[in-house]
Amino acid sequence: MGKRVALVLAGCGVFDGSEIHEASATLVHLSRGGAEVKIFAPNIEQRDVVNHLKGSPAEEKRNVLVESARLARGNIQDLAELEASEFDAVIFPGGFGVAKNLCSWAVDGKNCTVNEHVSSTLQAFHSAKKPIGLCCISPVLAAKVFPGCEVTVGQDKNVDGRFPDAETASAIAELGCKHICKNVNESHVDKANKIVTTCAFMCKAPLHEIFDGIGTMVQEVLKLA
Known about the structure:
By secondary structure, the protein is an alpha/beta fold. The chain has one domain: Class I glutamine amidotransferase (GATase) domain (Rossmann fold). The chain is 34% helix and 16% strand. The chain contains eight helices and eleven strands. A seven-stranded mixed β-sheet has the order 5-2-1-6-7-11-10. α1 packs across α8. The longest helix is centred in the C-terminal third of the chain and has 18 residues, at 207-224. It is globular, with a radius of gyration of 16 Å. The two termini are 12 Å apart. InterPro entries: Class_I_gatase-like (IPR029062).
């Protein structure tokens, strides 16, 4: 029987929701790994809405659960209904929606608050010693909720201009966590906390390298499950 994995989304679209390629890559690798997946998102209003064509704010309101349903092909549940006891692992793709909707990192950085259902979900899986997978900006959720954990968001310096958000590593360290430098095609496993992270689009890299890096994260999560 395949592992039961919960996938938590933050909307639909890189600038105000879940990064679509990361969500899709995660689902492909989970499918290849024989996992049984159920998708969730918080039933809350988005912090903002971005016109992805113009890269500018749009004067409208959208709901995170409704927008996430686009990625889930309609097969999605309210995050408030997620029961950790029904799953072997949980994975959070990235995208600015994580930093805007699942927590307030986009505005408050290391002083951010985490959505109550996101925090309780992370704590429930952690308490049950079940693995947590995070990619792109999502590792900041673990850094905020689990002081002392180990995560990666890529490199802590903007190596060759490929890691423009390298300062995120410093903020993670300021939270009392250990940042592990990794390349885009790698992931890091915090064995003590069963947290698996990979940098994905935190690195300017070809899409297939990001896809492969997410694959290593998914594989490690399934091994731990």
